[in-house]
From TrEMBL:
Keyword line: Kinase, Transferase
Keyword Oxidoreductase: no
Segments forming domain Carbohydrate kinase PfkB: 5-295
Domain of life: Bacteria
InterPro entries: Carboh/pur_kinase_PfkB_CS, PfkB_dom, Ribokinase-like
Organism of this sequence: Mesorhizobium onobrychidis
Protein's name according to its UniProt entry: Ribokinase
Pfam families membership: PfkB
Length: 324
């Protein structure tokens, strides 16, 4: 039986506006729709939860309207919060503008999720079988990065630690990033983030350098490439490009979060890494066909999708071909 996912990240309230295209400087657009939804790390937690993993949240929520909104969203998905709310701050928010080509642009305002201390995290205790996840967002905040890095370094060696640098990787001090990478068991990043850490090159060379130079204790690195799929390199040198799935995207918001959540959930059930990567590719593909960042599919939906896939290559142990 798989253990829990202990998510030490940040959750915010997303204000989502749908527009045909981003407005030019000094101009105004009228959105075709608006929604207020739970976002940030919530999207990854939802993906893990809907695919069968028990999820708990060890980050910080606020004590105002945004925090209340997030707690209600957590409860609806069966996600427990381990820490008490901040007594002085509300949770932050993010304005997400989704354009007609399904791409998204964000403007965020940090709140309680940006402040962590070891004292706040005292209720967060891991147990054998648990998996721990953290993201670059929490490490980018001056008020939380040191405490989180200190806490990660105290994790028992047998507890898998999954890290996603996120697009704010350039805002993480390199010393903090190096400390966290040194304790990472599974690194999942996109192609831009991988290059930011390991330097330029083709995906195979970058993945090799990530393992040899930056994540010495990692079991694998996963480099996500959107619709193309992902590249997985294991610590033993085995590597595979795992192709994505062709779908009609309407909203790419949360696709990376869905990929990571589904991947970790599959790993926790004992699914081999390359097969777990294809499972995660399918989860991300389904998520972009739906509106909203927390649009992760269930395990049954993923299995049905994979069962109807007509690609010439399969995903169970045979070599995959994908081009990055």
């Amino acid at each position: 039986m798989s253990g829990r996912l202990v998510h030490i990240g940040s959750a915010v309230v997303d204000y989502v506006y749908r527009i045909d295209a981003l407005p030019a400087p000094g101009t105004e657009k009228t959105a075709s729709s608006f929604a207020q939804v739970a976002g940030g790390g919530f999207n990854m937690m939802v993906a893990a939860s809907r695919t069968g993993m028990k999820v708990v949240f060890g980050g910080q929520l606020g004590s105002g309207l945004n925090g209340d909104f997030l707690r209600a969203a957590f409860a609806a998905e069966g996600i427990a919060t381990l820490t008490p709310p901040s007594p002085v701050m509300d949770s932050g928010n993010c304005v997400a503008m989704i354009s007609g080509d399904a791409e998204r642009t964000f403007v965020s305002w940090p709140g309680a999720e940006s402040v962590l201390s070891l004292g706040m995290m005292a209720p967060v205790r891991v147990a054998p079988g648990d998996w721990v996840f953290a993201s670059g967002y929490t490490l980018s905040y001056p008020g939380s990065r040191d405490a989180l890095a200190d806490w990660i370094e105290t994790l028992p060696a047998e507890i898998p630690f999954v890290f996603d640098p996120t697009p704010v990787i350039s805002e993480i001090p390199r010393a903090i990033l190096d400390r966290v990478l040194a304790h990472t068991s599974w690194l999942s990043c996109n192609t831009m983030e991988a290059g930011e850490i390991a330097g330029p090159g083709d995906v195979e060379a970058i993945a090799a350098r990530l393992l040899s130079n930056h994540c010495p204790t990692a079991e694998a690195v996963i480099i996500r490439a959107g619709a193309k799929g992902c590249f997985v390199r294991l610590a033993d040198g085995t590597a595979q490009a795992v192709p994505g799935f062709k779908v009609s995207a309407v909203d790419t918001n949360g696709a990376g979060d869905t990929h990571i959540g589904a991947f970790v959930s599959a790993l926790s059930r004992g699914v081999p890494p390359f097969e777990a990567a294809s499972y995660a590719n399918a989860a991300a593909a389904l998520s972009v066909t739906r509106h909203g960042g927390s649009s992760a599919p269930t395990d049954q939906e993923i299995q049905t999708f994979l069962g109807h896939d007509d690609r010439s290559t399969t995903v169970h142990g045979r070599k995959q071909e994908a081009h990055f």
